[in-house]
Amino acid sequence: MNKYFFLLCLVFIVAFLSNLPVFLTLSMVSFLVLAFANGNLKENWQRFIKNKAYVATTGIFFIIAYSGIYSEMTPYYWDRVRVALPFLILPFAFSSLPKLSERQFQLIFYGLLIAVTVASIGALIKYLSNFEFLTEGLEHGRPLPTPIHHIRFSLLIAYTIIVGFWLLINKVVYRFSWEKWLISACVFFLFVWIHILSVRSGIVVLYVTLFLLSLQYVFKTKRYLLGLAVILMIMAAPFLAYNFVPSFKNRMDYALYDFKNMQNGETKNFSDGERIISLQIGMEIGNENPLFGIGIGDLDNEVSKIYAEKYPDFIVKRPHNQILFFYAAIGIIGTIVFLFLFLFPFFYQKNYKDELLLAFYIIIFLSFMVEATIGNAVGTAFCIFFLLLSLKKVESRQ
Questions:
Q1: pLDDT tens for residues 197-230?
Q2: Which domain holds residue 126?
Q3: Spatial separation of the C-alpha atoms in residues 366 and 384, rounded to whole Å
Q4: Per-residue burial over 330-360, b = 16 or more CB atoms within 10 Å of its CB, e = otherwise
């Protein structure tokens, strides 16, 4: 059974990158089907409730769903519930499935590195085939075409780069010793590619994660010179990218232009300015309903109403911050409960000692600051799968 679980994890990675919602949904449902085929329901349930990290993760679904009690069950509400369903079914599925070997986990992450590299090469080819037009578009805030949403893709690349370093440190290969050079080449390519892609969210979370993991590694191994070298690389990389990567330069120039316009009070049709407006609206809604929020069912209509009244010429955007989104939707109490449930697996049985789980939490939590990451199907799939995979990896060691 663990062989099917192993293969299904690889299938999920391909499905995630395919940008085919049906393929992605079927791959997630397949985990549950496989779980029901593994042992009886009573044993699976006992195994599930025994591991409080899985139970806490499941609770995220209910904290999203419960606001329907005091808000209208609008189509937007049911869509949020649908998007959150993986939090309900996948923790039970993963807890019910057999443990994987350390070798199987290594090959899953190896497969992730290869899949993301191949997808990135495809995106790079598309970029180079229309280089001037797409590079110029970055000057106006337009992202490069990517297999999935550009922000989610950049987060996945950042995570995969960390995974690549982990594979190198642990000397993981499938069969041949020369594969270490293949892995090194993939990591180097992805590091360059994330700068070409020039999605600031991905670049920032990559640098912060590399910095924090480097500190952890230095304190563990006492290799201070290596730590200093990594910190210098992190500091130098943006300057090198700005001078030698046209797409990165254009994106940074646009960000500076956007910032100057915000200072002058001009926010319309500027990505950062419009994000700030969405945050202000989220804060306004939350402040009017601080304890329990307005309810997810009513949030979309309320946001649209404020835009119509105060910003009629703007594109309607929900709060571009996961914490503010929940503050507006479910209030302070609901947001605190969400953060507790989300962070519980990180601290449960000192799971934070696992490098990949630590990297995942840094990346996801930082993404919460600029996006409602679990507000759509792709973000939810990214969050739940790699969280549960990391938890399963830690569980298999115990």
A1: 988 889 989 999 998 888 887 877 777 777 778 7
A2: 101-266
A3: 16
A4: bbeebbebbeebbebbbebeebbebbbbbbb
